[in-house]
Amino acid sequence: MNRNTPISMKLAGSAAGLLVCVVAVTACPPTPPPEPTPVERGREIFFNETFNGNGRTCATCHREEDNFGLSPAFIATLPPSDPLFVAETNPDLAENFENPRLMRGFGLIVENQDGFDDLENNFNMRGIPHTLALRTSVDSRDGPQTGWSGDGSPGDGSVRAFSTGAVIQHYPLTTNRIPGVDFRLPTDQELDDLEAFMLSLGRQEDLQLPLPLKGAAARRGQELFNDVNGGKCFGCHNNAGANANPGVFGEGAGNLNFNTGVEDLPDQPQDGIGEKVPPDDGRGTPGNGEFNTPPLVEAADTPPFFHNNSVATLEGAIAFYNGDSFRNSPAGQLLRSATGSDINLDATQVEAVGAFMRVINALENIRTSTALLNRALETDRQKDYDRLRFANEETDDAIMVLSDAGLHFEAVRHLREARNLTRRAADNASPGTARDAIAALQRARNELIESQ
Amino acid sequence: MKNALSGTAMLLALLCWAPSAFGQKLTERYIPVGESPGISGKYSYQGEIKAVDTENRTLTVEGPEGRRTIKVTDRTNIWLDRSQQRQTNISGTMADLQPGRRVEVKYVDYKTPDTADWIKVVATGSG
What we know:
The complex is a heterodimer.
Chain A: H1 7-27, H2 38-48, H3 58-61, H4 72-75, H5 86-89, H6 100-106, E1 109-111, E2 124-126, H7 134-137, H8 159-170, H9 188-199, H10 216-225, H11 246-249, E3 257-258, E4 291-292, H12 314-319, H13 324-327, H14 330-339, H15 347-376, H16 381-403, H17 409-428, H18 431-448
Antiparallel strand pairs in A: 1-2, 3-4
Helix pairs in contact in A: 2-9, 8-9, 10-15, 15-16, 15-18, 16-17, 17-18
Chain B: H1 2-16, E1 44-53, E2 58-63, E3 66-71, E4 77-81, E5 90-91, E6 102-107, E7 116-122
């Protein structure tokens, strides 16, 4: 159409063009969004599915903001309406379901792993373990080991079956626990998806020690960790993970269970408040006193420690192995007979091992934070925001674990810079700022370890 | 370091060796017949009780895979599955194993397939 074309013809031409466009759009329907992956479906279930129960989800106890665990400090930040506190809000769960004082004060929840016939007397109070690095910490020569005593799953004992047991234990509307009434059990598809999601969390492989660490304290701590005459830690925590050292226990031994005497610790904090805390007999029914070996890379930012949250600090948990409770335990006695001596670390050595564990934890936090920032750069704004928020949770943890022990001030400075940049990236949706945050994280990492 | 351990390593290994993996068995009570994750259809079988020998403590079950006889020991857990009646599943006894009832039997392991680890019995009527 030229400049002299009548307006009516121009309009007719425009309408025809519009029609062509409409036809074209109608003929080519929009590309459907991609099918969610099993990990994405599992994530949705983990955070939102209540299984027709009391309102809890997996994430009620395994909080993403608390490293997929739940500490008493985090519990103190929750509102009274949080489904964690159903025993305080649902009269049907007021008795023999949870102990609110032990939950709020010590992060302990009720487990009936020895059966449900005597709920008033037959129970254990256990902390909530994180679900990070499950890919590396469940398999053993004797099959999967889940939960604090390795026997946390019904069915075949697998990570996949764990969710079924969790629903029965923690989700019911009443303690009658009638399937189809008080909850519904996860379907096979849901179990598959939940397993995929849980196995995707955290590290996917073990470290390979020794690492070329830069800090003198962490380096010395790593030596002690791997010294058969020092900390002897490597025997059960090969490469600071959850698996037994193959030189000690044979190839493929994997994740094992030991009676280390934690139950015999004197002056356990939860014992002094007048609430019933029965002795925990550990693995099996009746129990053999054994508990499962957890991974140590994730330890520094997931206190408190041990199955009953009896030790609040990382250095306290390391020092536990110097004490009589461990030395007199079956595991302590076997260690002595096998190596000729007890673990006997002085205070400076305890702190050195602590420095090592703090640095490897900070490195893992930096890895996770970097990965989240990189993924945020690839996705839409809302997911960006969530990922950036959790990236900062990880960065905050790295700052905390180093600062609390006065380690690597320069790395902490870079981490703080990364945190500020990540906040700005979240506020402005600025890819450049996110990239700057990644660079700051890399600088922090370079302070901790030689480049590999 | 690893050499220093080798002399005593296997001693430790032998003494510390954990027993076979086993799941949170007592939670099974609340899982209806045929729904045990990773077990049902793999390490268990379902069918109808055809005969009970209380003297020898054996149970004969007929199902899609044929007729099988299995030992019930003192360590065998028996549960009454009352979920169809919308009632709590409860612990059962040998007396609950009655001809005509539907059961799911999990055997101990592949080495001892003729011994029941647990048995779930579908309750009829009031139980």
